[in-house]
Design brief:
- The protein is of the alpha+beta class.
- The protein starts with 6 loop residues before the first helix and ends with a helix.
- The longest helix has about 35 residues.
- The structure holds dinuclear copper ion (CUA).
- Dinuclear copper ion binds next to loops.
């Protein structure tokens, strides 16, 4: 009689296989699963194609390997043979060995070929008439996103864009900052923000909507707070918004306070990292506050490097309103 312990590996393998099958549906569901979200820009679509092309091969290899594993476990089981007795010894099978050498080479060549075929459509910014393109500077900062539009308007953490137009992103971060990574999965791949260098990426959002993103490079204590959103509007709505935005100091001050200051400080210290803002003597010293923002101090990064005077004033005005009980 074979000791009962022998049945356990078989049972475990069957159980694991069953579990894997049971969770396949959940894993493939885009939201909260392991597959990318539905693409909303051509470059994201091509990344998605590459993902599923590779997945098809890996799924095939997985099923083949696991099925043969289980088949071998069953076929070559002990059948009452004593534990000390060796099983049948099999050696060499030229056609099998050729097959498992050649097949992977062909698979890798197919994957490489497909990816290189898709790559230009992912990387290269498509040509478009000036009226159908928009250039935005994307700065990754400790610990927020700063977007600068062609007319000088600035937004924090939320990028506004027109549907159907090519949006070219100049992705960078200031020389005294660190590397972050811009990533809005539905609108394309990741791209690093490298201090003092400019990387380029793009998207052309097919539909209006809000697309979520985040910093994808561990950059420090508030990395997880570097959430981003891209709000895509109709082109007419966007043009109107952009014209108004360059004059809207109140909206800018609020975004700066919430995206740049409050994450670490909080009004009453809710940020848990920096000291509370309420009651800080710098609030009544705009010049001192500006210096702190632009140059940083101790553990505080120079969050205001590169800000226009208007940006600094918008923040100071917002804080004054907030202290006075408004905001
Ligand atoms: Cu910025 Cu992580």
């Amino acid at each position: 009689m074979p000791p009962p312990v022998r049945r356990r590996p078989l049972a475990a393998a069957c159980l694991a296989f069953g579990l894997a099958l049971a969770v396949t549906g959940a894993a493939a569901a885009a939201n909260g699963g392991f597959t990318p979200p539905a693409p909303r820009s051509e470059n994201a679509e091509r990344i998605n194609d590459a993902y599923y092309f590779v997945l098809a091969f890996t799924a095939g290899v997985f099923v083949l390997v696991e099925a043969s594993l289980i088949a071998f476990v069953v076929r070559f089981r002990g059948r009452g043979r004593g534990r000390e007795v060796e099983g049948p010894q099999l050696r060499g099978n030229t056609s099998l060995e050729l097959a498992w050498t050649v097949a992977p080479v062909l698979i890798l060549a197919a994957i490489a070929g497909f990816v290189f075929y898709k790559l230009p459509g992912i990387k290269d910014v498509p040509s478009a008439q000036a009226a159908d393109r928009l250039e935005v500077r994307v700065e990754g900062r400790l610990f927020y996103w700063r977007f600068v539009y062609p007319n000088g308007a600035v937004t924090i953490d939320r990028l506004y864009a027109p549907a159907g137009r090519v949006v070219e992103l100049e992705v960078t971060s200031p020389a005294n900052d660190v590397i972050h990574s811009w990533w809005v999965p539905a609108l394309g791949g990741k791209i690093d923000t490298i201090p003092g260098q400019t990387n380029r990426t793009w998207f052309r959002a097919a539909k209006e909507g809000v697309y979520k993103g985040r910093c994808a490079e561990f950059c420090g204590i508030q990395h997880s707070a570097m959430l981003a959103a891209v709000e895509v509007m109709s082109p007419e709505e966007f043009d109107r918004w952009l014209a108004e935005q360059s004059m809207d100091r109140q909206a800018l001050g609020k975004q700066e306070y919430e995206g740049v200051c409050a994450k670490c400080h909080g009004f009453e210290g809710e940020g848990g990292i920096g000291p509370p803002i309420a009651g800080n003597p710098l609030l009544s010293d705009p010049a001192g506050l500006e210096q702190l923002l632009r140059e940083g101090r101790g553990a505080m990064p120079p969050v205001g490097t590169g800000w226009s005077d208007g940006q600094i004033e918008a923040l100071v005005e917002y804080m004054e309103r907030k202290i006075a009980g408004g905001g």
